[in-house]
Amino acid sequence: MEMALIASILIGCSLGLMPLVAGGYFRDALAWVEGDLRDKLRRLRVDTRRLRGWVVAWVVAVIAVGLGFLLIAGSVPFAVLFSLLLVCVPWYTVRRLAEERRQKIEDQLADSMVSLSSAIRAGLSLGQSLEILAEQSPHPICQEFRQMVGEYQMGQTLDRVLEDTRVRLKSENFALFAAAMQASRESGGRLNETVERIATSVLELQRLERKILSETAQARTSGLYMALAPVAVLHRLTQFLATVDHRGHDL
Q1: What pTM does this model have?
Q2: Helix 2-21 crosses helix 51-72 at what angle (to 10 degrees)?
Q3: What angle do CA 103, 106, 110 make, to 5 degrees?
Q4: Which of 157, 191, 208, 212 is the most buried (most CB within 10 A)?
Q5: CB atoms near residue 109 (< 10 Å)
Q6: Of the candidates 203, 211, 243, which has an alpha carbon nearest to the alpha carbon of residue 113?
C-alpha cells in the first residue's frame, strides 16, 4: 500500500509537471486528438462547438481514473489498463460510428447513381434529380443530398457543391462520381450513360472489397487475440507476484 501511495504521488507530480516540461508536445497532441475527433463528429453531423471542453474533461477523467486505481487498488498495471481503456473506448467508438456511416454511404451510392441516371433519362434537370434523391434516398446518404440541394439553391455553383461534398465525405466512389459529372457537363456528353457506367464500376468494386474482407476476417481476428494476449499475461504475472510477496511476509 505504501508503494502504491508513493507511486501515485510520483505519477501525480509527473502529470502535474508535464504541461510545464513538455507543454508544446502536450498541446500538439491535444490539438491532434481534437482535430481527429472533430473530423469524425462532423461526419456524424454532431455539433463540435464545445469539443475542446469535452476533450479537456476527458483528459482529466483519464488522469483521475489512473490515480484512483493506484490509491484504491494499489495496482499499477490495473491503473494503466483502465486509463488506456478510458482513452481508447470513446475514441474507438466515435471512429467506428463515423466509419460505419461512411460505409453505409458507400454502399448506398451506387443505387443513388442508378436513380439519378433514371431521373435524367426521364428528362429532369440535374438539380431536379438531386432533389428527388434527397427525398427518396435512404438514411444517411439522403442527408448529404439534402445538403447538396440546399447549397445549390442558396446560389453555389454545382462544381463547388460537388467539391465541398467530396471533401466532406472523403469517399473515393463519390470523388469518381463528382469528377465524371463535372467532365460530362464540360464536354457535353450524355450524363445518364456516364453515371450508369460509374454505378456499375462501383458495384463491382464493392463486391471485390467484400470478398477481400471475408477472406481476411480470420487473420484479423487472430491478430486481435494476439494483441490482447500480453494484457492477460501481465494480469496473471501481477497475481503471481502478489501471491509470492504475501507468502514472503507470512514467513
Answers
A1: 0.70
A2: 150
A3: 150
A4: 191
A5: 24
A6: 203
